[in-house]
Amino acid sequence: MAAEVTCLTATTVFNLDPIKKEVTCVSERGPETFQAKAILMATGCRESTRSALMIPGFRGQGILSTNEAQQYIHDLGVLPGKRVVILGSEDVGLSAVYALGKTDARVVGMVEEHSHLVGSRLFSLPTIVLRRVPLYTWHKINLILGNSSVEGVEIIALDQNGDPLPGTERTIACDTVVVSGKFVPENALPRQSGISLDERTSGPVVDQYLQTEIPGVFASGNLLRGVETGDIAALEGEWAAHSIQKYLQDSSTLTGHRVIVTAGEQVKWIMPQRFLSDASESPGFLATLRVNKRIRHGQIICGSDGEIWRSGKFRLLKPERRIRLNLHKWPKQILQESVELAIVT
How far is CA 219 from CA 204, 234, 275, 313, in A? Predict the structure, then answer.
């Protein structure tokens, strides 16, 4: 590689000591331990499984993640099923519709728990619109039918609070269920290493330099919160490299008064969860939050005892879209130990 970096493929990290900066791996070469001056964790994210989503029913043949369905089609050239139901309407679910549309399979339904299509409306045109895929918004899969293999799904309507409405059950005959989206950080390594995780994002707690609470240990990409696109993850990787370079040159440049940032009313999560009170060095794409539900004409307020910063008004805040925070407009010195970000209308 251009930077003279040794890339170890087919190698699994099974232990990380963040204090000693030791990483232990295993491969066909056997176990190996590497001593580092700094560590960057970028293990990415994964789709939630049927069991993690608590969908009742037997684990019969025909229940796949989007990644598995794509592998069947593109890598193995095998049709995963003839009648397919897709759970979730994020872009990754729409991509599954697009891939299945090039085969003899028929997508007989897309089930979405929100009141609207979550993915891009533009991407929905060549997928569910042109292929006339029924979109069941405000619905969830109540039961997967079949024992050894999938025979169908029972879906049920939801009210505005997300609670099931008895008497609205209906059955869709299918032989395949694709569980798409619901990405979660692949956080097993930081969790077992004792690195602090944020209960809202399930990723490591970091500051604006993407450094965890342990000096010299950094995290970037979808390990942080599990839901952003590849371009954002790549930009975070570049920023993490810049921060690691600063740390290796002089670790004291990444220290100082650390302020805890908490998610307040109507905020689902915020990242980073910490920042050094002098936040002048932060790229515009980094600080982001997501809301719990759709909010019209909302403003973001940052403060604790008093208001520190207020954003302009947003016409519509969507839970499936990232909202950027401009840290450059925050005061360079915040004396409080913690501040809260909330949404007001």
Answer: 7, 12, 14, 31
Within a domain: residue 221? no
Give the whole-angstrom CA distance, residue 63 versus residue 84: 10
Cα(first)–Cα(last) distance of the chain, in Å? 51
Give 111's contacts (C-beta < 8 A, 6+ positions apart): 85, 86, 87, 88, 136, 139, 140, 141, 153, 155
List the beta bridge partners of residue 270. 289
Q: Check if the beta carbon of residue 288 is closer than 8 Å to that of residue 273.
A: no
Asked whether residue 72 is assigned to any structural domain, the reply reads yes
**pLDDT for position 338:** 85
pLDDT at position 6, please?
Answer: 87
C-alpha 44/C-alpha 188 separation (Å) is: 11
Structure tokens at 114: 């929100």
pLDDT digits (tens, 9 = 90+) for 131-174: 999 999 999 999 999 999 999 999 999 998 889 999 999 999 99
- CA-CA distance, 268 to 23, in Å (whole number)? 33
If we measure between CA atoms, which residue out of 44, 32, 25, 41 comes closest to residue 244? Answer: 41
168: domain CATH number? 3.50.50.60
Q: How far apart are CA 244 and CA 217, in angstroms?
A: 9
Dihedrals φ, ψ of 284, to 5°?
Answer: -65, -25
Q: For residue 188, what pLDDT is reported?
A: 95
Residues 160, 137: contact at Cβ < 8 Å? no
Does 260 fall in a domain?
yes
- The number of C-alpha atoms within 13 Å of 70 and in the hemisphere containing its C-beta is 12
Domain region containing 108: 49-181
Mean pLDDT of the chain: 90
